[in-house]
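Notes taken during the Thursday session

The instructor put the following on the board and asked us to keep it in front of us for the whole hour. The protein is Prolyl oligopeptidase family protein. We were told not to look anything up and to reason only from what is written here. First, the residues (92 in total):
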Amino acid sequence: MILIQGLDDLIVPPDQSQMMFGALRRRGLPVAYVTSVGEQHGFVKAENNKRALKAELYFYSRIFKFELVDEIVISGSGFTIDLAILFNLQQV
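Then, after some discussion, the predicted structure tokens were revealed:
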């Protein structure tokens, strides 16, 4: 599961997605948590949408075990991603 969270979200507060991320991670399930400062429920900034889509594509490439044609570089201020558990996948 990939969770994409705007840190200013009032509909789904960040602590709810953090709890879900933690629970899935503790169970050893493949999970990614992507956050963006200054975004609410649904990203509106083009650069944040682009980063979130790149993170999603990378996540799917790890889950479904396909190679990406180009390297994905995800960068920018106010944008974080936790994909650490993906490197320890044993079975999906």
